[in-house]
Amino acid sequence: MHSNSKINLTTIVCVAFLIALDIILTRFLSIQTQFLRIGFGILPVAVAGIAFGPVWGAVCGGIGDILGMLIYPSGAYFPGFTVTAVLTGLIFGLLLYKKRYSFIRLLIACAVVCVFLNLLLDTLWLDMMYGSGYIALLPGRFIKCMLNIPIYAIILEVLWGKALSKIPQFHSA
Fold this sequence. Notes:
The protein has 6 helices and 2 strands, in the order αββααααα. Helix 4 (79-96) runs antiparallel to helix 5 (103-130). Helix content is 72%, strand content 2%.
């Protein structure tokens, strides 16, 4: 547990809400093909990391992925995607939790997650699952990644920079 993280009822309820939102946005409100998913499930995981720290972000990502797969399976379970979900919350938390607000910092966090996790790591998981050829999968996934970076950053800008900053519990240091 992060030394500054508090385990209290408010945190647990908020993270549980973000997990539910992650499941809804990922499983029910996204467009998915065998090799590509277009959706916004990353956003609640990012908010958990930003608002509650890297551990809670990782918990939100991991539990959201596992519960989502149990509730609404969209294929065979592959633990690599759970690793990606955990790392997503962890990275947003490490880069943005209790940090002074900066759109550039937010854009960098989105780029790190999109490039290293969603593009490179998830493409590896797909190649391992389907034997589709890592290099063959990259071009389409690269385009999606480059589009998602500014989209995620702008949405999180509204959530973190505007909405969360007005709530005393979520003030950035």
